[in-house]
Structure prediction request, 168 residues.
Amino acid sequence: MKKITVTVTLKKGVLDPQGKAISGALHSLGFAGVGDVHVGKLITLEVPDDTPDAALKEMCEKLLANPVIEDYTIGIAENRCCAA
Amino acid sequence: MKKITVTVTLKKGVLDPQGKAISGALHSLGFAGVGDVHVGKLITLEVPDDTPDAALKEMCEKLLANPVIEDYTIGIAENRCCAA
Prediction:
Protein backbone atom coordinates (compact mmCIF):
# COMPACT_ATOMS: atom_id res chain seq x y z
CA MET A 1 0.00 0.00 0.00
CA LYS A 2 1.11 3.54 -0.59
CA LYS A 3 -0.12 6.64 1.12
CA ILE A 4 -1.54 9.40 -1.04
CA THR A 5 -2.38 12.90 0.10
CA VAL A 6 -5.03 14.94 -1.62
CA THR A 7 -5.30 18.62 -0.79
CA VAL A 8 -8.56 20.29 -1.70
CA THR A 9 -8.74 24.07 -1.71
CA LEU A 10 -11.35 26.54 -2.88
CA LYS A 11 -10.67 28.13 -6.25
CA LYS A 12 -9.52 31.74 -6.33
CA GLY A 13 -12.51 34.06 -6.08
CA VAL A 14 -14.80 31.59 -4.33
CA LEU A 15 -16.07 32.97 -1.04
CA ASP A 16 -14.41 31.31 1.97
CA PRO A 17 -16.56 32.11 5.02
CA GLN A 18 -14.62 29.69 7.24
CA GLY A 19 -11.38 31.48 6.43
CA LYS A 20 -13.01 34.85 7.08
CA ALA A 21 -14.28 33.62 10.45
CA ILE A 22 -10.81 32.38 11.45
CA SER A 23 -9.25 35.65 10.36
CA GLY A 24 -11.76 37.60 12.46
CA ALA A 25 -11.21 35.36 15.46
CA LEU A 26 -7.42 35.72 15.23
CA HIS A 27 -7.82 39.50 15.15
CA SER A 28 -10.04 39.31 18.25
CA LEU A 29 -7.35 37.23 19.97
CA GLY A 30 -4.84 40.02 19.40
CA PHE A 31 -3.09 38.80 16.24
CA ALA A 32 -3.88 42.00 14.38
CA GLY A 33 -1.40 41.50 11.54
CA VAL A 34 -3.01 38.38 10.13
CA GLY A 35 -4.19 38.83 6.55
CA ASP A 36 -6.09 36.45 4.33
CA VAL A 37 -6.92 33.03 5.73
CA HIS A 38 -8.02 30.11 3.58
CA VAL A 39 -9.22 26.73 4.74
CA GLY A 40 -8.95 23.54 2.72
CA LYS A 41 -9.08 19.82 3.28
CA LEU A 42 -6.20 17.41 3.56
CA ILE A 43 -7.19 13.83 2.80
CA THR A 44 -4.79 10.93 3.19
CA LEU A 45 -5.68 7.67 1.47
CA GLU A 46 -4.07 4.27 1.60
CA VAL A 47 -4.27 2.75 -1.87
CA PRO A 48 -2.68 -0.33 -3.48
CA ASP A 49 0.79 0.25 -4.95
CA ASP A 50 -0.42 -0.38 -8.49
CA THR A 51 -3.21 2.23 -8.40
CA PRO A 52 -2.92 4.28 -11.62
CA ASP A 53 -2.91 8.07 -11.47
CA ALA A 54 -6.09 8.07 -13.55
CA ALA A 55 -7.93 6.23 -10.76
CA LEU A 56 -6.73 8.77 -8.19
CA LYS A 57 -7.89 11.58 -10.44
CA GLU A 58 -11.27 9.90 -10.79
CA MET A 59 -11.62 9.60 -7.00
CA CYS A 60 -10.96 13.33 -6.69
CA GLU A 61 -13.32 14.38 -9.47
CA LYS A 62 -16.14 12.09 -8.38
CA LEU A 63 -16.00 12.32 -4.61
CA LEU A 64 -13.18 14.13 -2.85
CA ALA A 65 -13.43 17.53 -4.51
CA ASN A 66 -16.12 19.56 -6.20
CA PRO A 67 -14.34 20.51 -9.43
CA VAL A 68 -16.70 23.45 -10.01
CA ILE A 69 -15.48 25.41 -7.00
CA GLU A 70 -12.46 23.49 -5.73
CA ASP A 71 -8.94 22.74 -6.91
CA TYR A 72 -7.11 19.61 -5.84
CA THR A 73 -3.57 18.36 -5.86
CA ILE A 74 -2.49 14.75 -5.50
CA GLY A 75 0.79 13.88 -3.80
CA ILE A 76 2.54 10.81 -2.50
CA ALA A 77 2.94 10.93 1.27
CA GLU A 78 5.04 7.83 1.75
CA ASN A 79 5.67 4.37 0.37
CA ARG A 80 5.26 1.61 2.83
CA CYS A 81 6.54 -1.86 2.23
CA CYS A 82 5.61 -4.80 4.36
CA ALA A 83 8.26 -6.65 6.30
CA ALA A 84 9.28 -9.82 4.48
CA MET B 1 3.79 39.18 4.42
CA LYS B 2 4.63 35.50 4.40
CA LYS B 3 2.31 32.63 3.79
CA ILE B 4 2.09 29.97 6.47
CA THR B 5 0.37 26.62 6.14
CA VAL B 6 -1.00 24.84 9.17
CA THR B 7 -2.10 21.23 8.77
CA VAL B 8 -4.41 19.92 11.45
CA THR B 9 -4.96 16.17 11.69
CA LEU B 10 -6.69 13.97 14.22
CA LYS B 11 -4.39 12.20 16.64
CA LYS B 12 -3.81 8.49 16.18
CA GLY B 13 -6.62 6.52 17.77
CA VAL B 14 -9.21 9.28 17.57
CA LEU B 15 -12.29 8.17 15.66
CA ASP B 16 -12.49 9.74 12.20
CA PRO B 17 -16.08 9.29 10.95
CA GLN B 18 -15.51 11.56 7.95
CA GLY B 19 -12.62 9.38 6.81
CA LYS B 20 -14.67 6.25 7.33
CA ALA B 21 -17.51 7.72 5.25
CA ILE B 22 -15.14 8.61 2.40
CA SER B 23 -13.60 5.15 2.52
CA GLY B 24 -17.06 3.56 2.31
CA ALA B 25 -18.10 5.83 -0.54
CA LEU B 26 -14.93 5.04 -2.52
CA HIS B 27 -15.63 1.32 -2.08
CA SER B 28 -19.18 1.88 -3.36
CA LEU B 29 -17.77 3.71 -6.38
CA GLY B 30 -15.71 0.63 -7.25
CA PHE B 31 -12.35 1.55 -5.72
CA ALA B 32 -12.27 -1.61 -3.65
CA GLY B 33 -8.56 -1.48 -2.78
CA VAL B 34 -8.71 1.74 -0.79
CA GLY B 35 -7.66 1.28 2.83
CA ASP B 36 -7.66 3.80 5.66
CA VAL B 37 -8.75 7.33 4.87
CA HIS B 38 -8.11 10.28 7.15
CA VAL B 39 -9.36 13.80 6.79
CA GLY B 40 -7.63 16.86 8.15
CA LYS B 41 -7.64 20.60 7.65
CA LEU B 42 -5.19 22.69 5.69
CA ILE B 43 -5.17 26.31 6.76
CA THR B 44 -3.13 28.97 4.95
CA LEU B 45 -2.51 32.23 6.75
CA GLU B 46 -0.91 35.44 5.62
CA VAL B 47 1.11 36.85 8.50
CA PRO B 48 3.66 39.66 8.78
CA ASP B 49 7.24 38.65 8.01
CA ASP B 50 8.36 39.28 11.59
CA THR B 51 5.77 37.01 13.21
CA PRO B 52 7.62 34.84 15.74
CA ASP B 53 7.15 31.07 15.75
CA ALA B 54 5.76 31.36 19.28
CA ALA B 55 2.87 33.48 17.99
CA LEU B 56 2.08 30.92 15.28
CA LYS B 57 2.11 28.19 17.89
CA GLU B 58 -0.24 30.21 20.08
CA MET B 59 -2.68 30.68 17.16
CA CYS B 60 -2.72 26.91 16.65
CA GLU B 61 -3.16 26.04 20.31
CA LYS B 62 -5.81 28.67 20.97
CA LEU B 63 -7.89 28.56 17.81
CA LEU B 64 -6.82 26.50 14.82
CA ALA B 65 -6.44 23.09 16.45
CA ASN B 66 -7.87 21.31 19.44
CA PRO B 67 -4.67 20.06 21.10
CA VAL B 68 -6.57 17.38 23.03
CA ILE B 69 -7.54 15.40 19.93
CA GLU B 70 -5.61 17.02 17.11
CA ASP B 71 -2.00 17.33 16.00
CA TYR B 72 -0.79 20.28 13.97
CA THR B 73 2.25 21.12 11.90
CA ILE B 74 3.31 24.60 10.86
CA GLY B 75 5.08 25.16 7.56
CA ILE B 76 6.08 28.06 5.37
CA ALA B 77 4.23 28.03 2.05
CA GLU B 78 6.01 30.93 0.37
CA ASN B 79 7.66 34.25 1.03
CA ARG B 80 6.22 37.15 -0.81
CA CYS B 81 7.95 40.45 -1.13
CA CYS B 82 6.27 43.57 -2.34
CA ALA B 83 7.46 45.23 -5.52
CA ALA B 84 9.65 48.22 -4.72
